Amino acid sequence: MKRTVAIIGGGVAGIAAAVRAAEAGWSPILIETRTKLGGRATSFVDARSGLELDNCQHVVMGCCTNIIELYDTLAVLDEIEWMRTLWFARGGGPRDALSIGALPAPMHYAWSFARMKLYSWSEKAAIARGFLAILRGGAVARVRWRGRSFAEFLQSTQQPARVIELFWDPVVLSACNVSSAKCEAAHALKVFDEGMLAHRFAGVVGVARIPLARLYDAAQKIIEAAGGELRLRTSAKAFAFDGTRITGVVCDDGVVAAQAFIAAVPPDRLAKLCSATMCQADKRLHTLEQFEFSPILGVHLAMKRRVMTTANLALPGRATHWLFAHEVTAECGFAQRIEAVVSAADDWMDLSEAEIEARVLADMQWAIPGVTTDDIVWSRRVLEKHATFVSAPGVDLIRPRTRVAAGDIKGGVENLYLAGEWTDTDWPSTMEGAARSGFAAAASVTGARGISADLPTAALVRFARLFS
Q: Is a pLDDT exceeding 60 seen at residue 409?
């Protein structure tokens, strides 16, 4: 008899769980309320332009081995464009390039970093001092600093205010969606350590060449080939709980029965699926209402002419954090599409589309002189209010395990498995964390392989840590 696992939530975590369960010989039933897969990392057809636009510009990095494996499983890895150079605006037109050089990790960015004019030599020395502390500390430092803010760590390495504003904060905001002052130190340290220092490919940024929703097209075939089912437009209402185990998922069109259940939805959504009795029975569910969320704003701009000559551009110290340029076809009726990204966009929440366009344009004019309102054919804002959980100091204490802990004398709901970047992945709120959680949940259900291996740590990095 085929073993069945019901997975609630068709975001990255749910997709990862489904394809991994299918690989292990189980039949996954993937339940998703929306008409398409992807969750917060998806795309939509814009009613005004008719174009398929992403919710926001999502990126992967070379260190994100699990989301990369998921894309490989879905046969879309070739649709990821890898950017080996990141560009930093200095205002007034000039920009600096941060790219991988010939030196081995952790020195692979050293040559291009030394040539950057955005920072003075004393500021570069301060940044190097911070990186040396991160390099030598490694995972041990993350444990030691856990529960404190990354700003406290930066203070311990005497980072000047301008360096924090123009170097550390832009990276932390992009990766963790909060500023250094509000970010769990262990999360930010992981970003710089494993995302920049540990391996030459770790910090290479990848973006999808196709709309995000198209990345997941192959998931349905994989699920159905394993005897499973993709149920879009199906809303899960509650878990049917008998006091010990889950017996089914109550949906708007009936009850879905299975041997195991993976909840791959955000914590506030999961709380609505669980009865008070079920929450009391499993301590993993006790913290669901303690999570806070941080928004991300994406702004799509159709331009009459090509105003960006690089694929990406960081805007250090500005309210708009990144610009990404996208190629368009002649049929679109404009020359270039630019996607602006504002992380931790709390201050933008109540602005009108016209006000948002004006703010973004002002930042573009600072970085790219000559851009005017007349260059914009149209703009679209996409605000994801609950884009990520807030990576506040101490947040890891409320992130639950995937499964009931072995030997837990208080028990729990043994056939309930949790997935989602908000669970205890040891990563910030990212697509990589989501993919890891989905793979881990599927492995807990099936007993098959789980999380993919990280990139190997470079020999010089390992050597440097011998003296920490």
A: no
- The pLDDT tens digits of the residues spanning 4-57 come to 999 999 999 999 999 999 999 999 999 999 999 999 999 999 999 999 999 999
Cβ contact 404:282 at 8 Å? yes
Considering only the top CATH level, what class is 85-203? mainly alpha
DSSP of 322-340: EEEEE---GGGSSSEEEEE
Q: Can you state the percent helix, strand and coil of the chain, rounding each to 5? A: 40, 25, 40
Mean pLDDT of the chain, nearest integer:
97
Q: How far apart are CA 85 and CA 64, in angstroms?
A: 18
Residue 1 pLDDT level (bands cut at 50, 70, 90)? low
The residue ranges of every structural domain in the chain are 4-43+210-289+400-446, 85-203, 293-389
Write the DSSP symbol of residue 63.
T
- Superfamily in which the 4-43+210-289+400-446 domain is placed by CATH: FAD/NAD(P)-binding domain (3.50.50.60)
- What does the buried/exposed string (b/e) look like for 137-157 if buried means 16 or more CB atoms within 10 Å of the residue's CB? bbeebbeebbeebbbebbeee
